């Protein structure tokens, strides 16, 4: 079968998409000279501009460029990519003009980029019309945003300049493209406008303005026949400049006389910011900025007005940057010419800009528009019946305070600086100041969005992609309701929800995580429903004006009349804001400065022919290689950017193989900026010999396989967001489970199944819609009532700040007086009537007995609840009447939950008991029948567990166990803990104090990693993924990385500071099963690709990794290159490795081998020489250097076997493990060996841990704390041992080391 022909490769474009020259047509019936002769006015608007020339890259064809690299004799074959409008010439003048050789090409077919409409471009380049001036005018610049039919945007920068109509250098007198004309007397002293427009895929507004400013110097002095060459050279320069990859590396190019900087985007998800983000803060008051943001968030029809065309685009782009990561998804036309004013009649949402001269016309002709005047900072509406709400008050107040603390004037910084004697030095100083200010503004606006939408996540169901908008609205303050109602209906918010439900770790999620309170972190781990804490209640008491301060909806016409609260004056001096005098959260955000680096692009030589282009590419490669050679071992971020740029340049040279090698290095250095689509197209475009040559290299063969395996047009996953709705038909069990999870009431599947049983007692096993609606309503009403609970200050002082009131009885008579019984997660107390007071009934820990009885009153028997405490003689009695049986169930469940929580050191028991209690209350409220209490008793899970089988924790276990945590909290099912890793805390000057805390890394199923703050055991980083396969091993490397080995044969590298995984190593061909670190080695010489350079040898760690097929690789941590590799002679089944005595000890199924790092065999322990059983195999091993011993666990044996390292031929010693079924993991801690197993306890299969004295070789402790097998063990500084269990339980236990 014939091999498929390679597909042609479309090379990536540089910064330039298109460059155009625009002006008045010389041969029109009313040319400029005739217009001047006929009209004696100062400004003439009758000229219609046209596109005179268009220049589109590539300016040197790929064939010419490649030919030049091998043969320099093709200079006159160069093709220029340009377009000059053909014009019909009078026949009488056909023979006149310049010789053909002096002329540019008369016409050439060029492909105009999508989104650029050449018919509309003249109007946008001359939006105010084209007029001949009687006196010279200053050059000016304005900016465009062009959108194609697919919604993709390109960005234009337009420079307008004037030329004398009859100057000797005038475009019309060179006569290269026009007929000869003689000057006439009436047109002397007139100036004709021209424009040069540069279009790019990136919004480099400042950079391209600087470039055009340099070009105008030449254009204003050149002759007509030189114009095309100047613009072509200019466009060619821009087309050869690659776009910088996301990150801290910016590109610098010498445009003479200016050094022009092209900044990169901060990360792949962020936009390019090359404008001054403080411009809106100079045009508008902070309050008006918030009103404009409200209009954008609610997707109004917004029109900006200004007398300055440039400001229209810059200011509107600033507002869109303020919304990041939310994105404006409607029409965006920041500049409308006079002929485009009918665009504002569009019925859908849009964002447009007009000249201030059209303000009255637009406001009269169109209804329902938001009209924003930049020149006077006002905002009005074209209709009287519009009502746009305000941004939530508390978020707005914080924003205003922080804006007023910003330093917006660079001149104040310059006051103390010496005068700059170098133009580019002064510009660099200004640019650095602007970058710092932009960063502050971005953080400030991002914090505003987080403040507004932070609690959205509390109403999401990730498993079923459901947002409960109705319940979310109920939690909003009354004055903010209208704002949220409108925002929730927008496309922008819908896309925001998609990102949240996909758990995208974008700027919003990162800011939300970084600004979380400790209470929010703790709540993220709790299973119980949320209630206001005592601390929040106290804060509400301290701010009685809170409800008064909340402004209600204000109609747009009266917005300028809203009374603005008195706030501190703007900080306009060099003194820093006194944060001590500001309320918490209102000071200027403390934003750490980010380091940026510059790479200077080499000079481009002219004439631009193939040879010169190749010389430019070679210079780029040389400079990039030199920069890479100077990098230190910790500069992988810069290395990745240099690899990206060098790969692009090599690709432009036509050197596919070296480019592919650079992209392969980039693939393992920083995955975020790896151009997967481009590499795939590169591979597909390779010829047969090129492809065969690439596949001879193992690294490239693996890369090619991976990029080609990626589906090209895979069906897009269903990412729709469903709004929660009550069911309309009967629900079976599975449907009921899904609906309850979607509602946000409970996530745990086991609890929902018990709820289903409770609601269907005595009925068919179906839940009808009415019952579900009643249950849901009852639950939400109870939740709302809890939010309104307000306790007196005298009561609050008796409670802990993190306590919540979960249940409040009706007013009843008790043995302590009349009042209401309140239940928190810790205690019962009486809220007495009259003068409200606090009387403690009992903590759940202190309860000894709970029973329901009746007392006689006249002829009645009144149901009474009696609670007996261990610390008090008297018995508490409460005449709860009809509530008595329910309260008995609830108190007993909480008592049982507290007992289990303390016995197992697991706070999740009390949280789950709270959920059971509230579900009981909702079930009784739903059914309202004699059988309701019996139905609710089906949810009394822990009380039954305690009564049916008393769970006595063995004394040794109770004394050793310190705490338990649940990494699967919030999931529908528990997940197995596959790997655990503890990383000690250390304070790095570059990181936050919170990042310096010790951390516990927990690998769950399908590549999930959870990170806990080991100082408080709260979630540090919510679940994120490294691949999609099971994770087998983890190790900390050089204090700033965690390496993770996966079943998918990759090693993922997580940055501890950024909590992101941007690197992966793919040299293994099978599941990675072990990782071990060898600290502080001098890196040996490493073989590199021919186009790579090698830095000096640095002292660096080395990591050894192994895979199940018997391969062992040694990695240099700094370069991430393989320094050595070997294959075990014993074959596959390699499960783990250890480093000891200069040897790698490798465990396979049938032998344990000690191998020197040069692959020479030192020692070997074979299973067949020591065991008679054919099924026996090695499962796990540990080395004890102090005793020179090898401890081994074997399949089919409940003994630990111990060999001396000096002579493995000697028979082993044995330590018997009573009731052990299978050994899963082993850990050496001090002089102990901890063994995690599957074993028997009280006749049931449980997870057990045996603690063995390494010297005495006896079992010291037998610990039982997991209901499922122990799968993972790790040590925390030899003070604690952490154990992770299987999927039936999925919890982590923390043990004290003696």
Mind explaining what this structure looks like?
This protein is an alpha+beta fold and 1298 residues long. The protein is 29% helix and 26% strand. The strands form 14 sheets. The chain has a six-stranded antiparallel beta sheet with strand order 4-3-1-8-7-6. β31 and β32 form a beta hairpin. The protein is flat, with a radius of gyration of 37 Å. Mean pLDDT is 82; it is low at 39-43, 67-81, 85-107, 172-187, 544-586 and 1082-1098.
Q: Which helices and strands appear, and what pairs or packs with what?
A:
Layout lengths: L17 E6 L8 H7 L4 E5 L2 E6 L6 H9 L11 E3 L36 H5 L4 E4 L6 E8 L5 E12 L6 H4 L16 E10 L4 H15 L4 H17 L8 E6 L4 E4 L16 H5 L2 H12 L3 E6 L2 H14 L8 E3 L16 E6 L3 H7 L3 E5 L4 E4 L11 H12 L5 H5 L8 H31 L6 E2 L4 E2 L1 H6 L6 H7 L3 H11 L5 H8 L3 H6 L10 H9 L3 H4 L47 E4 L9 H20 L6 H18 L2 H14 L6 H10 L2 H8 L2 H12 L12 E2 L9 H11 L5 H11 L9 H19 L5 H4 L10 E2 L3 E3 L2 E7 L3 E6 L4 E7 L3 E11 L2 E10 L6 E3 L5 H21 L3 H20 L4 H6 L3 H8 L6 H6 E5 L13 E5 L15 E5 L4 E6 L4 E8 L5 E7 L3 E6 L4 E5 L4 E6 L6 E11 L16 E9 L3 E6 L4 E7 L8 E5 L2 E5 L3 E6 L4 E6 L11 E7 ...
Parallel strand pairs: 9-18, 11-13, 11-14, 12-13, 17-19
Antiparallel strand pairs: 1-3, 1-8, 2-5, 3-4, 6-7, 7-8, 9-10, 14-15, 16-17, 20-22, 21-22, 22-23, 23-24, 25-26, 26-27, 28-55, 29-30, 30-31, 31-32, 33-34, 34-35, 35-36, 37-38, 38-39, 39-40, 41-42, 42-43, 43-44, 45-46, 46-47, 47-48, 49-50, 50-51, 51-52, 53-54, 54-55
């Amino acid at each position: 079968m014939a091999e498929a022909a390679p597909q042609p490769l479309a090379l990536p474009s540089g910064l330039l998409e298109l460059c155009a020259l625009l002006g008045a047509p010389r041969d029109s019936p009313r040319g400029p000279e005739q217009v001047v002769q006929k009209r004696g006015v100062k400004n003439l608007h009758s000229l219609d501009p046209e596109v005179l020339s268009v220049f589109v890259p590539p300016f040197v064809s790929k064939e010419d460029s490649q030919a030049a690299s091998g043969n320099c004799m093709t200079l006159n074959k160069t093709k220029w990519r340009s377009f000059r409008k053909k014009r019909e010439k009078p026949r009488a003048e056909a023979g006149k003009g310049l010789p053909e050789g002096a002329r540019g090409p008369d016409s050439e077919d060029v492909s105009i980029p999508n989104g650029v409409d050449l018919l509309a471009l003249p109007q946008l380049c001359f939006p105010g019309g084209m007029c001949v001036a009687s006196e010279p005018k200053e050059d000016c610049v304005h900016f465009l945003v062009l959108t194609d039919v697919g919604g993709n945007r390109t960005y234009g920068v337009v420079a307008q300049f004037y030329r004398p109509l009859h100057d000797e250098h005038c475009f019309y007198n060179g006569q290269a493209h026009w007929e000869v004309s003689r000057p006439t007397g009436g047109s002397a002293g007139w100036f004709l406008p021209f424009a040069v427009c540069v279009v790019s895929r990136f919004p480099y507004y400042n950079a391209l303005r600087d470039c055009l400013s340099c070009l105008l110097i030449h254009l204003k002095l050149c002759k007509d026949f030189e114009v095309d060459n100047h613009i072509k050279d200019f466009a060619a320069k821009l087309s050869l400049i690659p776009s910088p990859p996301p990150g801290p590396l910016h590109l610098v190019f010498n445009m003479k006389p200016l050094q022009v900087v092209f900044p990169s985007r901060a990360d792949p998800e962020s936009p390019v910011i090359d404008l001054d983000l403080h411009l809106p803060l100079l045009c508008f008051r902070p309050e008006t900025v918030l009103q404009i943001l409200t209009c954008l968030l609610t997707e109004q029809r917004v029109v900006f007005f200004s007398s300055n065309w440039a400001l229209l685009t810059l200011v509107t782009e600033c507002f869109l940057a303020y919304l990041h990561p939310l994105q404006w998804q409607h029409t965006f036309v920041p500049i409308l010419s006079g002929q485009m004013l009918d665009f504002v009649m569009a019925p859908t949402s849009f964002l447009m800009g007009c000249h201030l001269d059209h303000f009255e016309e637009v406001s009269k002709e169109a209804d329902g528009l938001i009209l924003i005047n930049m020149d006077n900072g006002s905002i009005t509406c074209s209709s009287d019946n519009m009502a746009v709400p305000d941004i939530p008050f508390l978020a707005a107040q914080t924003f205003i305070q922080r804006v007023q603390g910003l330093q917006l004037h660079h001149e104040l910084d310059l006051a103390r600086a010496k005068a700059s004697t170098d133009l580019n030095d002064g510009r660099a100083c200004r640019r650095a100041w602007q970058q710092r200010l932009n960063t502050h503004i971005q953080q400030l606006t991002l914090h505003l969005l987080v403040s507004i939408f932070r609690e959205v996540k509390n109403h999401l169901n990730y498993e079923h992609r459901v947002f409960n908008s109705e319940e979310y609205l109920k939690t909003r303050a009354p004055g903010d309701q209208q704002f949220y109602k409108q925002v929730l209906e927008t496309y922008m918010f819908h896309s925001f929800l998609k990102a949240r439900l996909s758990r995208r770790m974008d700027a919003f999620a990162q800011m939300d995580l970084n600004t979380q309170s400790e209470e929010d972190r703790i709540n993220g781990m709790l299973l119980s429903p949320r209630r206001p804490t005592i601390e929040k209640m106290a804060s509400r008491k301290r701010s009685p004006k809170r409800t008064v301060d909340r402004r209600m909806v204000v109609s747009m016409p009266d917005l300028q009349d809203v009374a603005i609260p008195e706030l501190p004056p703007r900080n306009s001096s060099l003194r820093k804001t006194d944060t001590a005098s500001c309320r918490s959260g209102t000071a200027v955000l403390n934003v750490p400065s980010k380091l940026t680096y510059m790479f200077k692009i080499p000079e481009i030589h002219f004439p631009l022919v193939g040879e010169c282009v190749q010389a430019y590419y070679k210079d780029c490669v040389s400079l990039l290689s030199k920069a890479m050679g100077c990098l230190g071992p910790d500069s992988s971020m810069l290395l990745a950017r240099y690899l990206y740029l060098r790969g692009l340049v090599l690709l432009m040279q036509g050197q596919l193989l070296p480019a592919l090698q650079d992209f392969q290095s980039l693939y393992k250095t920083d995955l975020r900026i790896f151009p997967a689509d481009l590499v795939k197209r590169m591979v597909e475009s390779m010829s047969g010999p090129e492809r065969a040559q690439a596949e001879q290299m193992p690294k490239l063969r693996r890369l090619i396989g991976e990029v080609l395996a990626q589906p090209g047009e895979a069906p897009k996953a269903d990412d729709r967001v469903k709004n929660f709705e009550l069911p309309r038909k009967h629900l079976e069990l599975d449907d009921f489970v899904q609906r309850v999870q979607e509602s946000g009431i409970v996530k745990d599947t086991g609890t929902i199944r018990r709820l289903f049983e409770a609601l269907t007692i005595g009925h068919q096993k179906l839940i009808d819609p009415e019952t579900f609606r009643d249950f849901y309503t009852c639950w939400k009403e109870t939740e709302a009532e809890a939010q309104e609970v307000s306790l007196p200050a005298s009561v609050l002082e008796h409670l802990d700040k993190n306590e919540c009131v979960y249940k409040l009885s009706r007013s009843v008579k008790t043995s302590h007086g009349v009042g209401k019984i309140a239940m928190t997660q810790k205690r019962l107390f009486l809220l007495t009537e009259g003068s409200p007071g606090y009387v403690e009934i009992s903590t759940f820990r202190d309860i000894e007995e709970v029973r329901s009885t009746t007392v006689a009153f006249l002829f009645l028997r009144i149901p009474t609840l009696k609670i007996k405490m261990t610390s008090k003689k008297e018995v508490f009695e409460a005449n709860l009447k009809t509530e008595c049986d329910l309260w008995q169930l609830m108190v007993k469940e909480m008592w049982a939950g507290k007992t289990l929580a303390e016995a197992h050191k697991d706070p999740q028991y009390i949280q789950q008991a709270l959920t059971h209690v509230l579900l009981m209350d909702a079930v009784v409220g739903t059914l309202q029948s004699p059988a309701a209490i019996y139905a609710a008793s089906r949810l009394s899970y822990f009380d039954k567990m305690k009564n049916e089988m008393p769970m006595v924790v063995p004394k040794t276990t109770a004394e050793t166990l310190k705490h338990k945590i649940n990494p699967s909290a919030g999931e529908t099912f528990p997940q197995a803990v596959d790997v655990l890793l503890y990383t000690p805390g250390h304070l790095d000057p570059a990181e936050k104090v919170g990042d310096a805390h010790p951390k516990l890394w927990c690998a769950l199923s399908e590549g999930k990693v959870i990170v806990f703050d080991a100082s408080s055991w709260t979630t540090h980083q919510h679940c994120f993924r490294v691949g999609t396969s099971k994770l087998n091993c983890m190790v900390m490397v050089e204090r700033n990385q965690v390496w993770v080995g996966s079943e998918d044969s990759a090693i993922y590298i997580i940055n501890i500071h950024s909590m992101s995984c941007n690197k992966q190593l793919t040299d293994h061909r099978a599941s990675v099963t072990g990782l071990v670190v060898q600290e502080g080695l001098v890196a040996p010489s490493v073989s590199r690709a021919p186009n790579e350079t090698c830095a000096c040898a640095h002292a660096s760690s080395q990591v050894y990794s192994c895979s199940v097929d018997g391969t062992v690789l040694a990695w240099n941590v700094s370069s991430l290159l393989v320094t050595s590799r070997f294959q075990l002679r014993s074959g596959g089944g390699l499960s783990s490795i250890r480093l000891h005595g200069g040897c790698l000890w490798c465990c396979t199924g049938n032998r344990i081998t000690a191998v020197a790092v040069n692959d020479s065999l030192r020692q070997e322990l074979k299973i067949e020489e020591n065991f008679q059983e054919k099924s026996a195999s090695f499962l796990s091993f540990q080395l004890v250097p102090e005793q020179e011993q090898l401890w081994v666990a074997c399949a089919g044996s409940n003994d630990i076997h111990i060999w001396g390292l000096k002579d493995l031929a000697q028979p082993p010693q044995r330590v018997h493990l009573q009731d052990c079924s299978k050994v899963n993991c082993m850990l050496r801690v001090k002089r102990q060996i901890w063994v995690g197993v599957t074993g028997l306890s009280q006749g049931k299969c449980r997870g057990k841990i045996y603690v063995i004295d390494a010297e005495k070789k006896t079992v010291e402790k037998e610990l039982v704390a997991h209901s499922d097998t122990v799968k993972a063990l790790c040590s925390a500084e030899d003070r604690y041992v952490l154990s992770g269990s299987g999927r039936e339980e999925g919890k982590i236990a923390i043990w004290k080391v003696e």
